[in-house]
UniProtKB/TrEMBL annotation:
It is an enzyme of class 2 (transferase). Keywords: Antiviral defense, ATP-binding, Cytoplasm, Immunity, Innate immunity, Kinase, Magnesium, Metal-binding, Nucleotide-binding, Phosphoprotein, Ribosome biogenesis, Serine/threonine-protein kinase, Transferase. This is Serine/threonine-protein kinase RIO3. It catalyses: L-seryl-[protein] + ATP = O-phospho-L-seryl-[protein] + ADP + H(+); L-threonyl-[protein] + ATP = O-phospho-L-threonyl-[protein] + ADP + H(+). Its cofactor is Mg(2+). GO terms for molecular function: ATP binding; metal ion binding; protein serine/threonine kinase activity. GO terms for biological process: defense response to virus; innate immune response; ribosome biogenesis. InterPro entries: Kinase-like_dom_sf, Prot_kinase_dom, RIO-type_Ser/Thr_kinase, RIO_dom, RIO_kinase, RIO_kinase_CS, Ser/Thr_kinase_Rio3.
Amino acid sequence: MDQAVVTAELPKTPWGFVVKQPPACSLTDVMSEQLAKQLDEENEAFASLNNPVADLLLSDEAPETTSDLMLAKMLQMQFDHEFDEQLRREEKKFNGDSKVSISFENYRMVHPYEDSDSSEDEVDWQDTRDDPYRAGRKRDTPPTEPQQAHKTVRMSQFHVRSLFVCSIPSEKPQTTPRRGFTGKGKNITTKHDAVTCGRKNTARMDNFAPEVHVGDGLGMDLKLSNQVFNALKQHCHSEQRRSARLHEKKEHSTAEQAVDPRTRLLMYKMVNAGVLENINGCISTGKESVVFHANGGSLEEQPVPQEVVLKVYKTTLNEFKNRDRYIKDDYRFIDRFSKLNPRKIIRLWAEKEMHNLSRMKKAEIPCPEVVLLKKHILVMSFIGKDHVPAPKLKDVVLSSEDMKNAFYQVLHVMQQLYQECNLVHADLSEYNMLWHQGKVWLIDVGQSVEPTHPHALEFLFRDCRNVATFFQKRGVSEAMSVYELFNSVSGLNVPVGEEEAEFISEIVALEKRNEDHVQRRGKKTFPVSSDDGSPPLQPDCDD
Ligand code: ADP
Ligand code: MG
């Protein structure tokens, strides 16, 4: 029966009865519905995208994170804001307190108009970016809708700031429009208005260097007169300059006991490179140099003496100023001297000592052997043993026999120096001669000059006086007089009269004659015979 009813309602086919399905929805419909829903959701999400950073900061709810696009935009926005903040800091650092400042505004990611409301009252963005009044200013004028989010962020920054200042200023200094005044009739206020200027000056204190403590005046309605503000600014500048000077001095000078960081670095490099094994300590600090003891390593597979000294020429220039005359008239250095800055001249001193020592070594004069020259550091062999430097001739106690022996050694060394090395020590005394293994060793030859130097003979005379006086005081009867010593060393026959002044004037006249020869014939035209038939002064010899 039932079967018959069903049969009557359903159309019959050869395969049986077909069950009628409800009409199916088209694929296009399904897709468009899904799309509409998705767009709807996205729209909701985008409604709060004006400042996602602010929203993120302010809302308690978890942010919508299902849309990748939105996440990307949020991150980009956050990045842009951070970039701008950084740019602002860089700009501030770059401009400092300079009266003329460079604006980085064009490089900002977020346009100032999007980021700030400064356009509303013709306020220059640059002038007011650090204005403490800026954030508080709009409290009475509600911000427009799109600015709401930014405003909130800035307000929160301001509140953090106001923890450090006393109170939120009640009034912002009025910025004067371009026409130079505000108001009408009697109520005209110009940009020179004391109150406006005073407030502006207070706000500007914020631009002082961070190390200048401006107190909590920024938070109050302070009005600084131009005079006070200028005095503060002046003080701030001079403080900065002073601290920079102090810093510079500390960094660049070789202090009494220590060395400056650059020199230290050079010394460490020598240890790192294996030239030195270690640097042990300071032997002497003089006016012009600091001498360190060190253990030698190896240099280009050549062994460095076991014990060496590092003579570090001081990089403070004061002392060297007095000694210019030793180097600027030395023909070996004259061309370079004029072209160099004072710091490089100090290196020249080290180089000069190296050349002089090399010459002396060739003539087999007992002296330190040069190991290495690095800028203003000269490494040479150590005269002494087991970290104990050889005593200076002035400090050593010798028998009369040894003292006599020492005198003859010094005489011989002075002659060798003049005649074989073509050098005058120019600072020879018992302070620059060491007594080691029964021999006199010469050191400190940085200032030594060639006999062609315009003052070489005067320097030689001074050396002779030091030597003669020392040995005479030590009771060496064989010690010559200063005049005899001078003639014996130089081979000149300067007549010995009654007065020292006469002798010196003879020397000066000789120097003058040599100088004239040099001028006439050029610096390399020696030998020049002196007119009185004394031996020629030797030309420059190669190191
Ligand atoms: P300054 O120009 O400061 O007088 P010196 O070259 O005279 O420099 O060195 C200062 C001191 O350092 C010397 O008096 C000496 O005691 C020590 N000294 C210098 N060079 C050596 C060396 N090669 N070996 C041992 N001691 C040295
Ligand atoms: Mg010395």
